Amino acid sequence: MTLPQRVRLFEMAPRDGLQNEPGALVPTATKIELIERLASAGIRHIEAASFVSPRWVPQMGDAGDVMRGITRTPGVVYSALTPNLQGLENALEAGVEEVAVFGAASEAFSQKNINCSIAESLTRFAPVLERAQSAGVRVRGYVSCVLGCPYEGAIEPARVAKVARALFDMGCYEVSLGDTIGVGTPLVAKRMVNAVSQEVPIERLAAHFHDTYGMAIANLYAVMEEGISVIDAATGGLGGCPYAKGASGNVATEDVLYLLDGLGIDTGIDLEAVIETGTWITRALGRRPGSKVALARGTRSA
Ligand code: HMG
Ligand code: MG
């Protein structure tokens, strides 16, 4: 068991972090400032928006304006969710350079989240991948509910492996494994990753863990021991999925960076700048930071 020497951190706050924000719509200018601050902190991969139906997810209704409004930092990849061809066309028009399709290991969650079965979702994704590839845009894949489903309960690792393999075979350059409701524990997470890595090379897998039960950091350490070296996280621990009741935010970027720092694993990201950004955005939303590290440092204003 060896830990990775380098980890690529994929920032989720502007998308997964804000998509479920209750109350008033977060202003487009705030989203743009958040993305630009994250890039200034040295984050090189940012999920900036989601081209889904604004009737389903109102907070992402300004995805085109966000993508067009950001001042891009060279070397930073700004990506967006695209559940179907309509979303992809809108994303291409807004100048995205990477998109993501999102499926699930649970039938019930697939129906609630994207209004179709797992099999139908894969059929829907195939032309999205073809069109994206012909436009020179990379596609990432997500599998949700990899460690449990809000409707079906426990999920067999083999079911996760099957969907991950289908997304990879279709052409997704990376498959991100989502503990959507944050119920996993380290051994269960290891078993799941081991099963999936029989079907998809481990270096093409990412961990996307929500922190509902406070296990995300332990789970990340466990799966890094299995060879995972790409981690999704949201600054301020923001977020939750609108179709997974009770799910809390993603593991906080600040907490992941603190862990990696302590392990001597390089990310090239400035932890202090991320803490400041997390403090700023959580204040702007009227929340306490969801990051333990930010709380421990005191909520300094940015
Ligand atoms: P649907 O209603 O089945 O779609 O939605 P439809 O094709 O029947 O179209 C119905 C209407 O939606 C039409 O409009 C379409 O134009 C419109 P109308 O003619 O009625 O006025 N429409 C769209 N509008 C804008 N952009 C689009 C689009 N597509 C259709 N792309 C759909 C299917 C997938 C669109 C819908 O279910 C949806 O938008 N769902 C949102 C799901 C979502 O965003 N969930 C949260 C993100 S996933 C997540 O958080 C998990 C993750 O973080 C990993 C993890 O944690 O596990 C990734
Ligand atoms: Mg998520």
Description:
The chain has a single domain, classed as Aldolase class I (TIM Barrel), CATH 3.20.20.70. It has helices spanning 13-17, 28-40, 63-69, 85-93, 107-114, 118-134, 157-170, 186-196, 216-225, 253-262, 271-284, 292-297, and strands spanning 8-11, 45-50, 77-81, 98-104, 138-144, 174-179, 205-209, 230-233. The model has no long low-confidence stretch (mean pLDDT 96). Helices cover 41% and strands 15% of the residues. An eight-stranded parallel β-sheet has the order 1-8-7-6-5-4-3-2. With 302 residues, the chain is α/β, with parallel strands linked by helices. The chain has twelve helices and eight strands. Bound molecules: 3-hydroxy-3-methylglutaryl-coenzyme A and magnesium ion (MG).
Note the main attributes of this structure.
15% strand, binds magnesium ion, 12 helices, 302 residues, eight-stranded parallel sheet, 8 strands, alpha/beta, TIM Barrel, binds 3-hydroxy-3-methylglutaryl-coenzyme A
Draw up the topology in text.
Layout: E1 8-11, H1 13-17, H2 28-40, E2 45-50, H3 63-69, E3 77-81, H4 85-93, E4 98-104, H5 107-114, H6 118-134, E5 138-144, H7 157-170, E6 174-179, H8 186-196, E7 205-209, H9 216-225, E8 230-233, H10 253-262, H11 271-284, H12 292-297
The protein binds 3-hydroxy-3-methylglutaryl-coenzyme A and magnesium ion.
Family: Belongs to the HMG-CoA lyase family.
InterPro entries: Aldolase_TIM, HMGL, PYR_CT
GO molecular function: hydroxymethylglutaryl-CoA lyase activity; metal ion binding
